[in-house]
Each structure stands twice: as C-alpha cells, then as structure tokens.
Amino acid sequence: MQRKTIAIVGFGDLGERLSGLLPPVNWRCVGLRRNANAVPEGVESIAIDLRDAHSLCVLEKLQPDALVITLSPSDRSARGYEAGFADAMSAIVAGLGDRRPDRAFFVSSTRVYSETSGGWVDEESATADQDPHVAAILAAELTFLDAIAGGIVLRAGGLYGQGPGPLLKRVAAGRLTPAEPPRYGNRVHRDDVAGFMAAVLAGTATTDDRLINLVDDAPVALQEMESWLCAQLGMPYDPPSSVATKEVSAHKRIRNGRLRASAYALQYPDYRRGYAAVLHRWMAHSEREDGLDLH
Q: What is the pTM assigned to this prediction?
C-alpha cells in the first residue's frame, strides 16, 4: 500500500497525539506550525505563518491525502478571532491550490451554539451568529466545508487531558462553582479527539456527516463534577451557596448522536473515567517532584 501524507496545520498537542496513532508505514506526518522545532520523532516539521499566504503554498507542494486544521485567535478581540479563524482558513484553502485532500478535519468549538440556559443542543441547533467571535469561527467552518468535499467539522467541547488543566487546578485551589443554580459543562478528552480522527482515517469509524459534535456521553452540572473531584483529592466540598441568576454564565447540554453513530468508541465516555486518568498522572508526577502541589 502506498504511503499517504497527512498535513497537520497548527501542529500542537492534538497533532502530536494523532501522529502517534498513525502507523508510520502507512502515513507520512507533516506538522505545520509557526515554530518548526519541538515535534516528535518521525514527524516532519515545516514553519508557516498563517498571516502570510505565501508560506501556505507549501500545502500545494505537499499534496496531502489528509489534512487536519486547528486554529486559535491572534488575540481575544473580535478582530483577533477574524484573523485567527476566518482569514487563516481562507489562506489555508488558497494554499492548497487546485488539489484537495481526500479527508480533512477542522477542529472547531461547541461555543458556536446560541443556547445559554442549559438546554439540549445538537448539530442542527441555532448558532450565535450575532456574536462577532462566533461569526468568525462559523465563517471558517463554512469556508472549509465549501472548499473540501471530504471535510468534517468537529465541534469539540471543553478539551482536557493535557496536565491537570484549569478546572482541576481551580477545584484544587478551593475556587468552586456556587451550589445554585446548576451550570452544565460539556467536555471531551484530547485522546478522544485524536482517536476519532485516527479511526476515521483507518476506516474503523465511518460517517457521512460533515458536522459532528465531539463531546463525551455525559454532559453534567459543574457542581457534580467538582464534588467528585474534591472527593478524589480528599478535600471538603464546600461551595458558595448561590449566585444571582443574572451572573450565571451561559451553558448548554450537547448531544453526541452523530459521534455515537460513527461506531467510534470513546476511550473516556464520562468525566469520571477521564479525570481519574488525569489525576493518576498528575499525582504520580507530583510525587516524583516531592509532593502534590494543589495550587
């Protein structure tokens, strides 16, 4: 079988996890990032600048069979999101030239949905088009889907699994979500983001959908998750009693029916299994460093 090429634009943690799942005998992995250094052995690295369309012409030369795109805003302003998502995606598509990969993934975000009060949403639910930050992400999605027939947008929930992460650090420091009202969160372990893409490329997961929510099976109230984490850390669970309703952050519960229909089996289908693995690695590392630093 002829060896295929996969180009990973914005090569970072997800790209590293994915490259580790692709057999080198079958795949040539090329990571494209601002800094061409610090990539795993076996991954070729090319320096690019998403603000410089000329540097992206390397994609046309690579003629990748598969493509992965992860983007981030240049800053937190609306213009930063436009530059980091909409403009960057247009430059990537232009850099491909006339050839298109057989399969491509754009790792987007469940932030795009307009639901704010804890209701259920799926891929057909309304999006927050009037929010300029969301509009920039949606513009990138549309450009990607219009340009690449084999493209799949992966709307990922809150990513975790790289170190303790902000949630676990916050809980360990005793900064807990008020007990009332409930506020739901949706998460996905980074291994499952990479695992799903690898499974699709290997043909062990199949889908005709071009837009998929990548979240685990258990959207859950933050209060429940924080209580469980406190128990695992041997800490008392003592959250503030309540917060004014007007101060409650937007939240939603996200269905993952399309993901489940693909036959991909989540490695971490709920927060308990996912954070159990995170805690195990964190505590083992902390013990090697002479004590668990909870702060």
A: 0.94
